[in-house]
Description:
Blueprint: H1 2-27, E1 30-33, H2 35-41, H3 43-80, H4 86-140, E2 144-147, H5 161-171
Parallel strand pairs: 1-2
Amino acid sequence: MKKTVGYIGCVVVMAISLVCGDVVAADTKIGVIDMKQVLSSSTAGKRAQGIIEQKMKSLQASFKNDETALINMQKEMEKKGSAWSDSVKQEKAAEFQKKRRDLAVKQDEANQELKKLREQHVNPILKKLEEIVGKVADDGGYTVVLPRNVVLFSADSVDISADVVSELNKVMK
Length: 173
């Protein structure tokens, strides 16, 4: 008897939650936004990406000489290493390790510089983007807007990326 009452109670609770769930779902409009697309296709995003790429190319060019010197030094050690005395080998190996550490430090500093540059140029866009997504969502009657990378499937009709890009271009000229 208790089991039957329990089953009936569960069925009633499930029926109520299904009915209520349908009512809530009917009022819910979900949008999807592709943040990468927005950043790469908006005017402000392209400008920020151009600045970052230019700095990255400049930094890579500055490392080219150091990398070439390390490669040449390694080749020299491989070719002539057997003819060198132990003290010369140790001296060359220490010099090689020092240059490699120096290059690693320079690369770490460059990565930090690029990170700061991204924060300086991309973060203001992201802050403005939050406002714009809210505005586009309100105008379109969306209850929820999710990033595309967390959605397994969505119809193209719920993608508001183009609207957000258009609005972002208007706001950040």
